[in-house]
């Protein structure tokens, strides 16, 4: 196989792996009954006029299975952190005692669990679309190479390999989604 084809295949594999990693990080943020500090990873706080990730302003930790604590490194950041949590619409109300902020995760209702499963499914669909777009781009690059003199057999083999990689990655997306759905729906 030519170097150009190898490069196209490697780029497609890397891009699909990134799409899977993105799905994994997004699924971690979806709550499954237990308090997890990573649920707040996407949260940004107004830190003296610039949006800053919460984990760079204070320490986020899980006290127990249903409580998260946020201890800012500067006491004057309690209010902005509280505002950011309320604006993020996480379904929890921050409790500020003047030193730390506590987030008490309410028990998940059946309806809320189904909502989270639906949200996870949406993330999975975004990943599947991204993987299919990567496949389409790779196949277009192979067709360009074929116009530039690549043999038809080599092009067909490369397209089949791209499709195999795509199928494998979409199966991994399904596996992640099933695991997350099971985690969310277990009481």
Q: Note the main sheet.
A: 4 strands, antiparallel
Please provide the count of β strands.
6
The amount of helix comes to 55-70%
Q: With helices defined by DSSP (H or I, 4 residues minimum), what is the helix count? A: 4
CATH architecture of the largest domain: Orthogonal Bundle
Average per-residue pLDDT, rounded, comes to 87
C-alpha Rg (nearest Å) = 22 Å
- In terms of per-residue confidence, which ranges show pLDDT below 50 for 5 or more consecutive residues? none
Structural class: alpha+beta
Number of domains as seen in the coordinates? 2
In CATH, what is the class of the largest domain? Mainly Alpha
Which descriptor suits the 3D outline?
Answer: elongated
Strand order of the largest sheet: 3-4-6-5
Order of helices and strands: HEEEEHEEHH
Q: CATH superfamily of the largest domain, called what? A: Ribosome-recycling factor
N- and C-termini, Cα separation: 52 Å
Write a brief caption for the model:
The chain has 187 residues and is α+β, with helices and mostly antiparallel strands. 58% of the residues lie in helices and 15% in strands. The chain folds into two domains: 3-29 and 109-185, Orthogonal Bundle (Topoisomerase I, Chain A, domain 4), CATH 1.10.132.20; 37-104, Gyrase A, domain 2.
């Amino acid at each position: 196989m030519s170097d150009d084809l190898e490069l196209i295949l490697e780029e497609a594999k890397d891009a699909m792996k990134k799409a899977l990693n993105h799905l994994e990080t997004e699924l971690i943020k979806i709550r499954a009954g237990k308090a997890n500090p990573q649920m707040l990873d996407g949260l940004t706080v107004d830190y003296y006029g610039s949006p800053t990730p919460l984990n760079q302003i204070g320490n986020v930790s899980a006290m127990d299975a249903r409580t998260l604590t946020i201890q800012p490194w500067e006491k004057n950041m309690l209010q902005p952190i509280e505002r950011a949590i309320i604006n993020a619409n996480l379904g929890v109300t921050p409790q500020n005692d003047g030193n730390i902020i506590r987030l008490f995760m309410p028990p998940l209702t059946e309806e809320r669990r189904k909502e989270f499963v639906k949200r996870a499914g949406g993330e999975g669909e975004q990943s599947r679309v991204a993987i299919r777009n990567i496949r389409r781009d790779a196949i277009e690059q192979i067709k360009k190479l074929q116009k530039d003199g690549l043999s038809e057999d080599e092009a067909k083999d490369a397209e089949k390999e791209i499709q195999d990689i795509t199928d494998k990655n979409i199966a991994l997306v399904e596996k992640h989604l099933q695991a997350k759905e099971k985690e969310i729906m277990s009481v």
